[in-house]
Amino acid sequence: MNADAIETQALSKHFAPGVGVSALTLSVPPGEVFGFLGPNGAGKTTTIRTLLGFLRPTGGEGRIFGLDVWRAREAVHARVGYLPGEVHLNPAWTGQELLDRGARLRGLRDVTYGLEVAGRLDLDLTRRVGALSKGNRQKVGVTLALMHRPDLLILDEPTDGLDPLVQDTVLALLREARAEGRTVFLSSHVLSEVERVADRVGIIRAGQLVRVDRLPDLKASLPQRLHVTFAAAPRADLAALPGLTVTRAGLLSVEGLWRGDPNPLLRALAGEQVRALSFTPSSLEDAFMDEYRTGGPHVA
Ligand SMILES: Nc1ncnc2c1ncn2[C@@H]1O[C@H](COP(=O)(O)OP(=O)(O)OP(=O)(O)O)[C@@H](O)[C@H]1O
């Protein structure tokens, strides 16, 4: 059976009209790290909780390894390691006790990998969860999600509250999971961390999946930032060029974003008195900020 790790068809979860997640259609093949990005309140957690059958879809359907996320949720859970956005653990238990309990619940005899993960995260398993800092509780959550080497990891903001060194370790663990052919669905609002680990990214905004792309394609499609100053007012109407979105225009200058083949722009400028011209790639960060705010540039 070659089912996708995750497949959704118009999957929706509405809490009220216009609130929640709308008609999400997405496929994540096995062995991929998929970064799920979006601003606060965009619907990342709702999507994840629906994929795990904690919330009943109000429309469409979702499958994990071919299993219906609502009707077969218990079978789904057996294939998944889940880290919730907020880790709630019994404060009276130690990390070791939670690890042993997790192993028992999953019928896992060998906790060697769980111990290795905890060690690499520099987590003291002898301490009670109630006595741990937020970051250390997060490490317990990460360890519990990873310990059984699940086929699919669904992680809601896994590096939240962790220091940069530990964040690096978590991302390394995710890359190792991919190297073993396992799948990772990683929600985040931090582009820079997703960029370091994801094969593809999806951007959700106001409950809608607005873009899904491979990272290199996304980078290649970014517009160039253009800044031209003139010695004399230009005669051509540069704003009319289809590739140009003007962000600022003066009598003797134009700033904007250019998409696609630069030759029409160069031809238009050839007849003008150009004093200076700069043409620079915009950063991925810029592109994401545009996407967050407006739904982003429509790249051909
Ligand atoms: N149980 C609920 N009842 C009603 N509305 C809800 C419920 N859970 C979430 N929402 C609403 O659904 C929308 C999506 O919320 P969600 O928590 O999925 O966003 P998010 O992308 O995970 O945000 P964050 O990055 O802040 O965690 C928000 O408008 C939120 O207020």
TrEMBL record:
It comes from the Bacteria. InterPro entries: AAA+_ATPase, ABC_transporter-like_ATP-bd, P-loop_NTPase. Residues 6-231 form the ABC transporter domain. Keywords: ATP-binding, Nucleotide-binding, Transport. One of its GO terms (molecular function) is ATP hydrolysis activity. SUPFAM superfamilies: P-loop containing nucleoside triphosphate hydrolases (SSF52540). It holds the Pfam family ABC_tran. The keyword Nucleotide-binding applies. SMART domains: AAA. Belongs to the ABC transporter superfamily. This is ABC transporter ATP-binding protein. It comes from Deinococcus ficus. The lineage of its organism: Bacteria, Thermotogati, Deinococcota, Deinococci, Deinococcales.
